[in-house]
Amino acid sequence: MSGPTSPSYTLSNAWDFAEERLALLGAAYDADSIALAQRLGVGAGWRCLEAGAGGGSFARWLCGATAPGGRVLAVDADARHLRDLPGLGGEVAQIDLVAEELPSGAFDFVHTRFVLLHIAQRETVLEKLVGALAPGGILLLEEGDGLGVREEMPGAFGEVWRAFAQSTEAAGANQSWARSLPSALGAHGLIDVEADAQIPMFRGGSPMAHMWSLTWVQVAETLVAQGISREVIAAARAELDDDQRWFYAPPTVRVWARARS
């Protein structure tokens, strides 16, 4: 198993094991995303936009949840893992969220997960997502926040994660941006703004552990360029395989708000 040849923090959908990593990401996070979407009322007939759909697991759920009569548009800069969605009643568009436009005022529900913090022009994309809301539509953003991980995460996993975070920020990510989202959505004119944060705890050998292990494989060359030895990367992966160990992931910040009717 080898990672990409060009050093980059970017978790490319074209990587040989990207589909597996994205499926593990869905397995780790979909349940909470779905529970919140249900709480917000997403259901039959809703028009939904999944921006930065990745592996498409949440978009697949939306296809079932909004039938009959709904619409699900899943967009990604690389839509190779979304090919089955039309067979489920969804639509797919290969769209660069920074450079290209989204349908305006068209959706009852707009969602992203772990997308915006990795885009240097995140404020531009956020404005487009707000603009895609129909009157009364709901925007739900789920983003990671590095709070506590850099300083506190022990072991090889913590050492590798800190280097990974530094590499993403060098490429334009912002590991502390998510905590500013409640104020940002209010500034964009949205109402009924709510937010929460969750620190995921996970066991070695779990889907989340496997997802992080594959992530370290995918970004191995970038980590080495950050000064992390291959031995430390291997040690971090061994920790993640140990079902007697427990870890915590970066906090997930969830913020949702509604467009005025």
Spans with pLDDT under 50 lasting ≥5 residues?
Answer: 1-9
User: Structural class given helices, strands, pairing?
Assistant: alpha/beta
Helix amount: 25-40%
**Span between termini:** 51 Å
Which fold does the CATH topology of the domain at 18-151 and 173-201 and 249-258 refer to?
Rossmann fold
Proportion of residues in β-strands: 15-25%
Instruction: Report the principal-axis shape.
Output: globular
Largest sheet: 7 strands, mixed
Strand adjacency order, main sheet: 3-2-1-4-5-9-6
Listing every helix as H and every strand as E from the N terminus to the C terminus, the arrangement reads HEHEEEHEHHHEEHHHEE
Mean pLDDT, rounded to whole units? 91
Assign the CATH class of the domain at 18-151 and 173-201 and 249-258: Alpha Beta
CATH superfamily of the domain at 18-151 and 173-201 and 249-258: Vaccinia Virus protein VP39
Assigned CATH architecture of the domain at 18-151 and 173-201 and 249-258: 3-Layer(aba) Sandwich
Beta strands, count:
9
Secondary structure tally, helices: 9
Question: What would your notes on this structure say?
Answer:
This protein is α/β, with parallel strands linked by helices and 261 residues long. It has a domain at 18-151 and 173-201 and 249-258: Rossmann fold (3-Layer(aba) Sandwich), CATH 3.40.50. It has helices at residues 18-39, 57-65, 122-131, 149-152, 155-170, 181-187, 207-218, 220-225, 230-241, and strands at 47-51, 71-76, 91-94, 107-113, 133-144, 191-198, 201-203, 246-248, 252-258. Helix 1 (18-39) crosses helix 7 (207-218) and helix 7 runs antiparallel to helix 9. It is globular. Mean pLDDT is 91; it is low at 1-9.
